[in-house]
Amino acid sequence: SQTEQLAEKSNSIGQRMEWYRNTVRLVMERPLLGYGTGGFPRAYADFITDPGASKPAHPHNQYLMTAAENGLVGLLAFIAVLIWLWRMTTRIPALLQQDIARGFLIAFSIGCLFTSLLLDNVEGLLFVWMLALTFGGTDAGGRTHSDVGVSGRLS
After folding, report:
1. What are residue 144's phi and psi, to 5 degrees?
2. Is the sign of the CA dihedral 11, 16, 20, 25 positive or negative?
3. SS3 assignment, position 51
């Protein structure tokens, strides 16, 4: 009933669920490439016809935000980067650094379910800094910097 829907939307969880549902509907309208980077607020505001409805700047879910702005192509690319980073943790030589990197990736991936972590400056910088700190001692081939001489070639 309409009363149940209004009660559901009146609390923060109900409001977020409404944002999630509406964002999924937005994604379904432009599934391949989305509305463009930074296009979510306007697309959402145009999508919602009720003038009294809340029109958030982001859906409080990084995965939905990425899908809405960059389509399923962008969402798959984002998930592919997270998977690639996870796989790269095996190349970190120190076990403690591996565990820190994995723990951070797990926390970040879960956090993205509940807010748009890459949208905010602080969380975006934290993501970059944590990647730099944990992956900084290896190159793409999994070698540590101490294995590589000044010229950049293996010693």
Report:
1. -85, 160
2. positive
3. coil
